[in-house]
C-alpha cells in the first residue's frame, strides 16, 4: 500500500513499481498524457453515469405515471361498484314494496273492494289489479 500512496519513485519499496512510476513521472510529456488519459476516462465515466441516471429517472417517472393511472382506474371501478350496489339495493327495496302492495291488493280483492279502490290504496297500475282479480276469480 505504501508504494501506491507514495508520490516519489525513489521512496518506493518495490523496484518494478518504482521504475514504472519514474518513467511516467520523470517525463513531463508522458505524465501529461497519462493525466489527460485519466481525465478523459473519468469524464467518459461521468457521462455514462449521467446517461444511465437519466434513463433510470425516465423509467421511474413512467412507472409512477402508470401506477397513478392504475390507482385512478381502481378508484373509478370502486365508485362504479358502489353505484351498482346502491342501484341493486334500491331495486330490492322496490321489489319488496311491490310484493307488499300485491299482497295487500289480493287481500282487498278477497274482501270485495272494487278495482278502483284497490288502485287508489295500493298505487298499483289498473292492469295489474285487473290481472289479480282474474287470478282470484279462478
Instruction: Report the β-strand fraction as a percent range.
Output: under 5%
| Count of individual domains | 1
What percentage of residues falls in helices of 4 or more residues?
over 70%
Beta strands, count: 0
Q: SSE string, helix = H, strand = E?
A: HHHHH
Number of helices: 5
Low-confidence stretches: none
Choose one word for the global shape.
rod-shaped
Name the assembly state: single chain
Mean pLDDT across the residues is 89
Supply Rg.
46 Å
Q: How far is the N terminus from the C terminus? A: 112 Å
> How can the largest sheet be summarized?
none
How does this structure look, described?
With 138 residues, the chain is mainly alpha-helical. It has one domain (2-137). The chain is built from five helices and no strands. The protein has helices at residues 2-5, 15-26, 28-110, 115-122, 126-137. The longest helix is centred in the middle third of the chain and has 83 residues, at 28-110. The termini are far apart. The model has no long low-confidence stretch (mean pLDDT 89).
Amino acid at each position: 500500500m505504501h508504494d501506491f500512496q507514495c508520490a516519489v519513485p525513489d521512496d518506493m519499496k518495490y523496484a518494478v513499481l518504482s521504475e514504472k512510476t519514474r518513467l511516467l513521472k520523470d517525463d513531463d510529456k508522458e505524465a501529461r498524457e497519462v493525466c489527460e488519459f485519466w481525465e478523459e476516462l473519468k469524464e467518459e465515466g461521468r457521462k455514462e453515469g449521467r446517461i444511465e441516471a437519466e434513463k433510470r429517472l425516465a423509467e421511474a417517472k413512467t412507472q409512477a405515471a402508470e401506477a397513478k393511472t392504475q390507482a385512478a382506474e381502481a378508484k373509478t371501478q370502486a365508485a362504479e361498484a358502489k353505484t351498482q350496489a346502491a342501484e341493486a339495493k334500491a331495486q330490492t327495496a322496490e321489489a319488496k314494496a311491490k310484493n307488499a302492495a300485491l299482497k295487500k291488493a289480493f287481500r282487498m280483492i278477497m274482501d270485495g273492494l272494487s278495482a278502483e279502490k284497490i288502485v287508489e290504496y295500493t298505487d298499483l297500475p289498473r292492469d295489474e289489479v285487473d290481472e289479480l282479480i282474474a287470478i282470484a276469480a279462478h
